[in-house]
Amino acid sequence: MVMDVLVVGGGIAGLALARALRRRDVPVTVAERSDTDAGGLAINLPGNAVTAFAALGLADGLQKLGRPTRRREYRSARGKLLFAVDEDAFWGPEARPRCVRRSDLLALLADGLDAPVRRPLEVTAVRSAGDGAEATFSDGARRAFGFVAGADGVRSVVRATALPSAAAGTQTALLSAASWRFMAPNPGVDCWTVWSGRGGAFLLIPVDEDTVYGYASATGGGAVSADASWLRTTFGGYPAPVRRVLDGLSDLYHSPVEEVRTGAWSAGRCVLVGDAAHATAPVWAQGAALAVEDGLVLADLLADGDWDSVGARYETLRRARIAHVRSATDRFSRAAALPVWLRDILLPRIGPRTYDATYEPLRHPFPTP
Predict the structure, then answer these.
(1) Residue 275 near residue 291 (C-beta atoms within 8 A)
(2) Within a 10 A sphere around the Cβ of 43, how many other Cβ atoms?
(3) d(Cα 358, Cα 278) in Å, to the nearest integer?
(4) Listed residue (286, 67, 284, 352) closest to 190, CA to CA
(5) What is the CATH number of the domain that holds 334?
(6) Which residue from 48, 117, 202, 368 has the least number of CB within 10 angstroms?
(7) How would you write the pLDDT of the chain (369 residues) with one tens digit per residue?
């Protein structure tokens, strides 16, 4: 038995947890199945994500990445401004949202991390075992650990093997079955901007002075073709900034939009964090935020020393915050499925209130041990 923590997954959730554990002097090993640290495209970090990264000691480093997001604009498919949000005023300078390249964020999390990250090292099964947990690796080797944390995403091996009753918790998102994500030259937008119409929603966020990160999906659970021509067919009649982006797409990725809804996030000395536990559609950009918060809470609990009670205490501390984000995501997803004419009438009135109701609880500190 090696009395350290095995973190399965070396993405944002896994590296954040490892960093939080080392700040509390808890020994940890990270197992990542990929042989590279390629970071994908970009990520929007709302204010509570910025606050969580600051709690990891990364506030200064984060301020050097990407670009602050000072304002949001929600527009119709014809370009009419339905409502806007002053994010600077809402979050304040210490928690100003940012859009950053995911590769830069992963590098920041890994920089100076005093813990081994083993790659490629694939975990194929995990189970609770007495006063610890046992992990099986792709070469057939087995190793016992004091604790295992599954930070391995929507298709979590830890969830499937250590919590078999929760293995069926993955489902297609209510908002959309799939999405396209991409990078493109900035067509002249200077803030977080979404255009929404009958065919779907098209979001652009500046990630630096020259580049935008984009996200496009259907609404109301509509189909999103894996053929990139779907983008032009669906959004070719949208305003000029959208059309210019469609002409200059690069790093284009199609992927399903899946959520994880399970009744349990722990079993014995095995716990799920981040998307492995509670992935939601990216309506409120909470994936990284909640993952880092999970890591901070779990690290505090593990530092206390009573590892047998950690799982139950972790779930108690995290349930209410996750339930709030999930409910807010469902409400937005249902509203997005309304007829366009009705949605465009309602959004100027209910949009600002919805933003406030969603993010106001997230401005406040999350429960800790």
Answers:
(1) yes
(2) 25
(3) 17
(4) 67
(5) 3.50.50.60
(6) 368
(7) 457 999 999 999 999 999 999 999 999 999 999 887 655 699 999 999 999 999 999 999 999 999 999 999 999 999 999 999 999 999 999 999 999 999 999 999 999 999 999 999 999 999 998 889 999 999 999 999 999 999 999 999 999 999 987 666 789 998 899 999 999 999 999 999 999 999 899 999 999 999 999 999 998 778 899 999 999 999 999 999 999 999 988 789 999 999 999 989 999 999 999 999 999 999 999 999 999 999 999 999 999 979 999 999 999 999 999 999 999 999 999 999 999 999 999 999 999 999 999 999 999 999 999
**Which residue, among 275, 184, 177, 260, has the nearest Cα to 226 in the 3D structure?**
177
How many distinct structural domains can be found in the chain? Answer: 1
Nearest by Cα to 278 from 221, 322, 309? 322
- Residue bearing tokens 């209510």: 174
- Sequence length of the chain is 369
**Does residue 192 belong to any structural domain of this protein?**
no
- Please name the amino acid found at residue 365: P
Residue 68 lies in a domain: yes
Asked if residue 103 is part of any domain, the answer here is yes
> What single-letter amino acid sits at 315?
E
Tokens of 37: 């640290």
Domain annotation covers residue 209: no
